[in-house]
Amino acid sequence: MDDYLKQFVEETSFYNRLVLGAFLPESWWGPLPHMLQGWLRNYIGGVLLYFISGFLWCFYIYHLKRNVYIPKDAIPSNKAMLLQISVAMKAMPWYCALPSLSEYMIENGWTKCYARISDVGWLSYVIYAAIYLVIVEFGIYWMHRELHDIKPLYKYLHATHHIYNKQNTLSPFAGLAFHPLDGILQAVPHVVALFLVPMHFTTHIALIFVEALWTANIHDCIHGKVFPIMGAGYHTIHHTTYRHNYGHYTIWMDWMFGTLRDPIEEDAKKM
């Protein structure tokens, strides 16, 4: 293996030892192939991130700040949240296959990933990361929109997520409650972008896990009012109209392609 590519393997091996070593005897995971170790590490990390972030956020907005951010009649039932958790946990093993595959491709030199920021310099790092995020934003917008527009995709994949279509059925736990293939398709732009623009490996891995935090955030029904962020206020409208606010991190794609609906304007119409 090329010495440069070994840096990627050393980094993922470090993550494997860090996570797997903390939860499992080495005799359980040490003999596994490297890629399978990566999948198991991603699975454990994904489950922990989902439950820790979900429980902390629900405890904060539904109990510590009860009726401050969410009206009493908009708080989801425990039954609704348990259903969301069940759907997410069935999909989690499959979700973790995508980052495991991306790591395999990176470690084998198939992508434009680089190992150290010093390889390109800080200015190039920022520019490349910005281009990467634009590609991801564009890709997720259109993937999400086509999951609505192509009827079989909606019926057999995306409808699983859209049973949560009112404030009192949405919660941070709904963020990963997708059909497994649906969740993978919406994350695919993160991998496709690796073939199009140089991207820092550690930043790519971090952004994959940030997805779990972000999807929890945009399903809490709290409108943060931070322009141009596609926050929960926008995404709640998406869950009630089905035809607007397909974007991911920002409102730009919806603005450019005519599908933006502003929650403040919606509230004004109701008054």
Layout of helices and strands:
Blueprint: H1 3-23, H2 26-29, H3 34-64, H4 78-95, H5 97-107, H6 122-149, H7 151-156, H8 180-192, H9 201-217, H10 232-241, H11 252-257, H12 263-270
Helix pairs in contact: 1-3, 3-4, 3-5, 3-9, 4-8, 6-8
Question: How would you characterize the overall build of this protein?
Answer:
- The chain has about 270 residues and is mainly alpha-helical.
- It has one domain.
- It has twelve helices and no strands.
- It has helices spanning about 5-25, 25-30, 35-65, 80-95, 95-105, 120-150, 150-155, 180-190, 200-215, 230-240, 250-255, 265-270.
- Helix 3 runs antiparallel to helix 4 and helix 3 (about 35-65) packs parallel to helix 9.
- The longest helix has about 30 residues, at about 35-65.
- The termini are far apart.
- The mean pLDDT is about 90.
What are the salient characteristics of this protein?
single chain; 271 residues; mainly alpha; 12 helices; 64% helix; globular
CA-CA gap between termini: 65 Å
Our count of helices gives: 12
Mean pLDDT: 92
Structural class: mainly alpha
Largest sheet: none
Question: Helix fraction?
Answer: 55-70%
Low-confidence stretches: none
Q: What sequence of helices (H) and strands (E) makes up the elements?
A: HHHHHHHHHHHH
Overall geometry comes to globular
Number of strands: 0
The figure for the number of domains is: 1
Instruction: Say what oligomer this is.
Output: single chain
Strand content: under 5%
Radius of gyration: 19 Å
Domain Fatty acid hydroxylase: 130-259
Subcellular location: Membrane
Pfam family, one: FA_hydroxylase
InterPro entries: Fatty_acid_hydroxylase, Sterol_Desaturase_Related
